[in-house]
Batch of 2 targets.
Target 1
Amino acid sequence: MTTHAPHASHTVTLPDSLDEAVAALTAMPAAVPVAGGTDLMAAVNAGLLRPAALVGLGRISEIRGWQYLDGHALLGAGLTLARMGRPDFAALIPGLAAAARAAGPPQVRNAGTLGGNIVTSAPTGDTLPVLAALEATVIIAGPGGSRREIPVSHLLAGREMLGPGELVGFVRVPLLHAPQAFLKATGRTGPGRATASVALVLDPARRGVRCAVGAVAAMPLRPLEAEQWVASLIDWDGERGLVPEALTAFGDYVAAACIPDPAPPEDGSEPATLPPAALHLRRTVAALARRALGRALS
């Protein structure tokens, strides 16, 4: 169905299926897909974007739910943040549910979608560090009914991009059946954009700890050496607890990896130090990582 707004030059197309949406985008290369519109409309209102046409995804029921598939959850890209914050979803993927609940005020959570978070790839997107820590993959729908699957980290880093007519249709997330945590710091009280966030998941089957830090860089950062170090300290067959000193050391390890000291000058002069704002951010990340690991192990 296509409607034309009065006194406007752009077209709004409302497909009923994912393949219809792909066909509409293929036929109108200048069109912009829109689901919740929380980021898109902010850009339009700020005068940063003037789409020639819109392809609305709100009628596509196949991308608004989830299903179980071979030890994974297949999440529709149209899932709203509010829906992911509910108890039944939290029992499935607690880290993602916690991020969805922290994503902003109710009007944002009711409209914003998982796929929108991924495609917009804002550094402060709350679901992104959780998806990175879970090593999720995205299933991309393309012209002619094609489907391809890539790691979400590749899309966020720009290593692989959406092609003409392509849409993120689903997100595949492994079900770890183990504790997960998501914590964020904001610049003010109440729901707000993160100044730093940390997602942490335990993977008992692989005896691993996976951590991702959000909002401090253009994409979530994985402190791989810190993950491997702390995983080696955990008694996976026992209580899994760690002494406070180990939790503190892990937090410092993560923070230093994500906000490193400046490189020493090549001329041998006095090394530069981090500015106060960066030192404060490093302390914030250290505290979040320490608390997230403590919660996951408690």
Target 2
Amino acid sequence: MRNSFFCIDAHTCGNPVRLVAGGGPLLPHAPISDRREIFVRDHDWVRKALMFEPRGHDIMSGAIIYPAYREDCDFAVLFIEVSGCLPMCGAGTIGTVTAAIEEGLVKPREPGRVAIETPAGRVDVTYEEKGGYVDSVRLHNVASYLHEADVEVDVPGMGRLRVDISYGGNYYAVIEPQDNWSGLDDMTASDIVGCSQRLRSALAGICDPVHPDDARIRGVHHAIWCDRPVNDVSDGRCAVFYGEKAIDRSPGGTGTSARMAQLYGKGRLTVGSRYRHESLIGTIFEGRVEAEASIGPYSGILPSIGGWARVIGHNTIFVDDRDPLAHGFQIR
């Protein structure tokens, strides 16, 4: 049997986003958080086939659009990438909205504005359109917060690090320069991957955050290494790690949200603050602290992230049962 998937490929500030516009599995009409569980249980081969090699690569990310269950949303999205079926993805949202609007996949109720049902909650998005193209996107992300500050962890090959655990749609270990880590300047991409893998493994035994409102969202699967900016217009620079060996080419949407929540939790940002976040390749997301928020017993923020994406092509992908590598592979 051969399955066909029609995809619109894009990138958000350098990070790939593959929007599955046709061929995605039919799922029951239910909240997207429930559909996410069904997808992971019964259809995760689709994610692996489209994200992993030979049809994808180590940093591949994507999304599948579904009809919204919530009446206050225009559509729902499942985020698929090499690291799994995520509750939320900021770069994925910016790329998905850009591709969906430009290619006519969705028709907003109000021009320039869409509400998206994600497994992490409702995400409101505004966008600017010029000449039939989406020029920029701003997503108003889910409530974000500093879960735990100054967690000390022994990392093989690095020594003891002090990290903060922060949530911006996914849980992150946030690392700033300190005695045993001098910053990004002395790190290669391979160094970032190796250190992140060891840090995540070390944290797994001592830290397992659970979202106060949804116990299905838990665990530290991402790391964000934060440093001073290179670009004069930026406030900070980062490298976001996810999956087995992926480094986000954008500054990371949920990563920037988690970073701002961490800075807010430590009194270094206030409501109304702007935070221009620079990626390893120099692209920038403009973050803003829009308002205060409560997440269970925690105080946090409502962040917004501004960025851009570009559609780079149409892609019809075949997944043939005769292919020994039909469901993809990863080299570890």
